[in-house]
């Protein structure tokens, strides 16, 4: 892959995290992502699922900061993202899955319209995941293709483990056709 293509892919991934578009990744971006998901699915922030999503978002941010915020200013710049998040996580994709899992688990619970009182559902409908990707900034085409491809066994639902693996791969494996 040439360097322009690599830069473009990095820029896409950085933009996916920089939810408020201010040029750096910080705690606010994770809170914005949580708020967007809750609004899309009509879930109250003070509900159990809402609180779980914010808790997961905070854990995701803390994990990201621990890996990538080299100067400790509570902001991950694009340079820190490239040097820390992408390079270090590429060498340790399990680490990314670990920091992202609580957020994804909570997001799946929010996106699943079923009643799962007291339990975390392990999967969400494909259409709901597509809505979640769109509200987090993915284009309609990308969201549709990504959601379909996540349904590995074609049962119409996306399992937590597949969502975790796909997100981990998206952020840690940067290839020409990734
Ligand atoms: Ca930001
Ligand atoms: Ca920093």
What is the compact description of this entry?
With 178 residues, this protein is mainly alpha-helical. The chain contains eight helices and two strands, in the order αααααβααβα. It has helices at residues 3-17, 27-40, 48-68, 78-90, 93-111, 126-135, 140-150, 160-172; strands spanning 123-125, 157-159.
Written overview of the protein:
With 178 residues, the chain is mainly alpha-helical. The protein has one domain: Recoverin, domain 1 (Orthogonal Bundle). 65% of the residues lie in helices and 3% in strands. The protein contains eight helices and two strands. It has a two-stranded antiparallel sheet. α3 (48-68) runs antiparallel to α5 (93-111) and α5 (93-111) crosses α8. The structure holds calcium ion (2 copies). One calcium ion (CA) binds next to loops. One calcium ion (CA) binds at residues 18, 20, 22, 24-26, 29.
Show the helix and strand layout:
Blueprint: H1 3-17, H2 27-40, H3 48-68, H4 78-90, H5 93-111, E1 123-125, H6 126-135, H7 140-150, E2 157-159, H8 160-172
Antiparallel strand pairs: 1-2
Bound molecules: calcium ion (2 copies).
CATH level 1 name = Mainly Alpha
- Count the beta strands: 2
**CA-based shape:** globular
Secondary-structure arrangement, i.e. CATH architecture: Orthogonal Bundle
Radius of gyration: 16 Å
Structural class call reads mainly alpha
Number of domains: 1
CATH-derived topology: Recoverin, domain 1
Report mean pLDDT, rounded to a whole number: 88
